[in-house]
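User: Predict the structure for this protein chain, please.
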Amino acid sequence: MKKVVLFFVYFMCCFTLFSQLSIALPTSDLCVQAYENNQTPGQCYKGDACSKWERVSIICEYAQKMKKAYAGYTYKNDMLPNFNSQSHLDACIQAEFDAKSDSTLLFQDRWRACIAGFQDTHMHLMTSTEFPHVSVGLQLIEIDGKVYIKARVSNLVKLYEAKNEDVNWGAILAVGNEILEIDGKTPELLIKEFAPYIPASSEKYRRASALNAATGRSFRYPTKSHLTIKIKDDNEKTYELELPWRVTENYLNRYDTDKYFKSLNIPVWEEALWTYSEQEGQYKPISENWEGYMFSQSLFDEDLLTTLKSPSGREVYSLGIIPLTKSIFATLQASDASQQSNKAAGGDVEKGYREINAGESSSSGAGNDSGESEVAYFSGGYNFCYAQIKTFNESRIVVGEKHAFVWAPLLSFLTTCEDRGLKLILDLRNNPGGNSFYPPSLAHYLIEDYSKNRVGNSTYAIRTNFSWMAQAYNSGRAIANAPRVIQGPTAEHMYPVLRQAHEEAYKAGKSKSNIAVVDYPGFDEDEMDEYQGFLYTGDMITLISPYCISACDRMSAILKRTKRSPIYGTATNGTGLGTAVPWYESNGEYYVGIPSYLFGVTDERIKNADEQQVTFDYDIYQEEWLLENRPTDADHQLSITLDDLRAGDYLGSYRKTVVNALIADDVTKLKN
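Assistant: Here is the predicted structure, written as structure tokens:
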């Protein structure tokens, strides 16, 4: 009997040791085990739980696809501190194997964190059925190291007053009030808690997104029906109260979220407060249903601008010729909207922008403490142009009853600005990007070197998603030879050419091919023929923020590196990976957009139009031209101020600084 007991103890020790060793198996072996043992494929999205082996199988699939298709697979090793793509993916697989919970929601959060580890704003976890968004109806902003309410749902105060009339909800939840704690945690702790789940190419964007996740998110769902928040108003009075969570109605479309939010008794938002952007992989607030400062806000009053939209209704850009009046520097409002007129710039198609009549501004002296009239202060009625580009993702735009090529009205507007000798504010603060060819093509009408085809506007470092390229190129350090046969700024022209270039490089046994200088001579659409040779030469200022993403990053980098325009704001997003190709796991429910190429901008070394190819080492190209994880920093740091946030003129000081910088010389001349 004693021998039997000893044998049993020995057996259990060996079994325990083997089990511990199996946990430390190479991830390739874990993946083999997962594929062999996954007996319940497709369960992760059918219920609220899924087995370990199915979860590990999915992460293994993702890891294998990333190695083959992700353009930043090697690049990230060089760019991110203490990071290795292979090691990171191995850790994701191991973490899923070690996870104790079978909850689909927690599995999805772990996967989000795995994706976010690559620090790529373009790469998101998505499903065929959107994750619902949960919120307490507040948006937050960080100013000078402290956190404040920047916006609230328009009817939020009424919702709370209906339940408790004894509380002055309007004063407590006022825009500009400081947030001291949420659920007993400081804002800084909350940022650190949510940051690992934010796919972000820069720290500023990650930090801002993590902060807003404290009061509204579609991941790491709350574990109770309310949050406890401590708020301090502008009179230094402190309040502590409970705010109930509410969830978007689409939670009913998923079994896991339906069960989860019903278990917490979390109610639904009755009005539409957000739209889901698949391009950005997140919910975007619908501005008209919020009060406070919105990132999408134009620099000038909407009455001074005409906003043009795509056929689908998406706002593409807002244009206006702004009258320089005393009120620009005082109340910073338009002097008299009734004096606006819709003038076409000529031609058969209404150009779709509003002109403000020069020299006809009100002389009421609004905002002028000295009593001087507007006209007396700025004799001559000086005007300037303003263009806020809100996306690079549309190809057509609605003008009157017709559809035009997206950039035709903008070029018409810039032609008017050029003819009148007006300076320009180019606002890129809230632009999620889109077609990466648009910025270099648009640059032909803004930058002399580009207009003369003297600068190669587009170079690409490609890590292809073709499996046969794995043998040919050294761990993603491929530089694609993209010859000049590309006819226009559209993706369908690019991919066949690049594939042919890859194939030729592979047959030649090259691990690196030449970098080709791809010249885009403006836009090749027929509607742009009348602008051939046009160049806007006026002075301009460009505005940026971390919400200037992808193609917008590229536009900002082009303007800065060519020194065409001083840049005001903070920094761009830092995205330089493009064309996120959706990859679906084998069950077809979860998918991730995996960027397929790196993009950047060239520099002044390429001057000769005859010099079609420039050959040099990848490391130089990576160091100097690529944009991913390299935000374009503003030349002049400028952010919203607390005083303006509390006063309600959210961009007041920002606007004044920019306008002063733009027209300082002219104002001096006018005064004299």
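The chain is about 30% helix and 20% strand.
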